[in-house]
Amino acid sequence: LECDALCKDKILHRFLRNVNSQLLVVRPDLNVAAFEDVTDQEIKSGNGMQFDIHCYKTTNPSAGLPVAFSVQVADKNYYLCCEKECGKMMVRFREGEVPKDIPAESSNIIFFKRTFTSCSSRAFKFEYSLEQGMFLAFEEEGSLRKLTLKKLSREDEVDETMKLSF
Q1: What string of pLDDT tens digits covers the 166 residues of the chain?
Q2: What is the reported pLDDT for 29?
Q3: From CA 125, how far away is CA 150, in angstroms rounded?
Q4: Would you kindly state where each structural domain of the chain is located, as residue ranges?
Q5: How many CB atoms sit inside 10 A of residue 101's CB?
Q6: This prediction's pTM
Q7: CATH of domain 5-165
Q8: Count of CB atoms situated within 10 Å of the CB of 41
Q9: Which distant-in-sequence residues (6+ apart) come within 8 Å of 124 by Cβ?
Q10: How far apart are the first and last CA of the chain?
Q11: What is the torsion angle, in degrees rounded to the nearest 10, for the CA atoms of residue 79, residue 124, residue 62 and residue 106?
């Protein structure tokens, strides 16, 4: 009998960078997560920038490594999830802890980590577990590069906005 539940394996502590070497910064007070140029001094604080990447054991490694993201901002923990809003999938950070065990392999907090391209083993893309072909990415919104979910139009398409590295 195969178990469909995910149980936590390990936690990596990492900064997430986009293709422009900007760091992902979470600002819950503004309800936004965006890639920004940050100073060394700001990086030292790590506030809203240093992510815990929760890796889970899986019985289906071909889908990619199941991960969940959390971050600490001003002594509070937030986890990344996706929610439908006005018919569109939105990336949100909700206050709380990432569960140790997740009852099913698909959850609104689980993403499958895959290498970005076969020749780029240090860069990754993260596919949303509840919607095949939807990946974490950034989109320009004014001066902001906001974290979002984006659909790949073709399986073999290379979209630099989905390229994330640690």
Answers
A1: 345 567 778 999 999 999 999 999 999 888 889 999 999 888 888 789 999 999 988 777 777 899 999 999 999 999 999 999 888 889 999 999 998 777 766 689 999 999 988 777 789 999 999 999 999 999 998 889 999 999 987 877 789 999 999 8
A2: 85
A3: 11
A4: 5-165
A5: 9
A6: 0.89
A7: 2.80.10.50
A8: 7
A9: 113, 114, 115, 116, 163, 164, 165, 166
A10: 36
A11: 20
What tokens appear for 60 in the block? 């289906």
Which residues lie below 8 Å from residue 152, measured CB to CB, with a gap of 6+?
A: 133, 134, 135, 159, 162
Enumerate residues 6+ apart whose C-beta is below 8 A from 49: 15, 23, 24, 25, 26, 38, 42, 43, 71
Read off the tokens for 41. Answer: 């001094």
